Amino acid sequence: xxxxxxxxxxxxxxxxxxxxxxxxxxxxxxxxxxxxxxxxxxxxxxxxxxxxxxxxxxxxxxxxxxxxxxxxxxxxxxxxxxxxxxxxxxxxxxxxxxxxxxxxxxxxxxxxxxxxxxxxxxxxxxxxxxxxxxxxxxxxxxxxxxxxxxxxxxxxxxxxxxxxxxxxxxxxxxxxxxxxxxxxxxxxxxxxxxxxxxxxxxxxxxxxxxxxxxxxxxxxxxxxxxxxxxxxxxxxxxxxxxxxxxxxxxxxxxxxxxxxxxxxxxxxxxxxxxxxxxxxxxxxxxxxxxxxxxxxxxxxxxxxxxxxxxxxxxxxxxx
Length: 319
Prior knowledge:
The protein has helices at about 5-15, 25-35, 45-50, 60-75, 95, 105-115, 135-145, 155-170, 175-185, 190-205, 215-220, 230-235, 240-250, 255-275, 280-295, 300-319; strands spanning about 20-25, 50-55, 85-90, 125-130, 145-150, 175, 210. The chain is of the alpha/beta class. The protein folds into three domains: about 5-150, Rossmann fold, CATH 3.40.50.300; about 155-220, Helicase, Ruva Protein, domain 3 (Orthogonal Bundle); about 230-319, Up-down Bundle (Zinc Finger, Delta Prime, domain 3). The strands form two sheets. A five-stranded parallel sheet has the order 2-3-4-1-5, sandwiched between helices. The protein has a two-stranded parallel sheet with strand order 6-7. Helix 8 runs parallel beside helix 10 and helix 15 runs antiparallel to helix 16.
């Protein structure tokens, strides 16, 4: 099983597998990812090397036979003036979960299975479907021979950011990278919350070609932190990037810099004697220096706190 993000990295590197199965309830993400496979072929050569087939009307034995024959021919056709062809099979439910009503249909399915078992290396076949029967022989074959990609399952902020861009693009608009990033950080991989916020955002920015960062800030409001101690936990782990993201969420939510500093001071006093005894004194000095700088307005509070977080994380890595 691979995530859509991992598959996008494969596409960018040009090192794809012969067969992919895109499934799940998120039709927008499936359509966007299937379209991304076209990037494997140079734009001027796509007319010769990118082919889309729709299996939605392969509902009878004869139609299924003809459709599978056309699919096999498309997949086995050699690329023209390019190293690779891309064939996308849409609405593949009729092939993956067919009605076995005739010998012709059974023979067509056997031919399809032979294609999956021994696909040509010069073609990338992308199969797009809705639900799947994980108990079926065909799905088990695909699980061995293909890269399975379940769409609509988000695991990280990067997944959420991609999901947001796809949703906005499907509505005929674009979103500024900073806006997509902020919304992804605020909502996390919570699809329900993402869907609600994106729908509100599209209504708010109706008629705009591009949704800007300011529009996102108007809609999402203060961040709802999933874990009040996520920043300190990240510092304990020495994960500077995660700690800085959590710091940004806290400040964007309106938490006063003094309260953030208080939490960092507690962390140093309570945890560092056990986890970083050799750096305790310098860590306390760093907290004290930041406190003084905040009180005398010796710099942007966000920058001062970011510097302190980086220092504390650096100390963890050195211990």
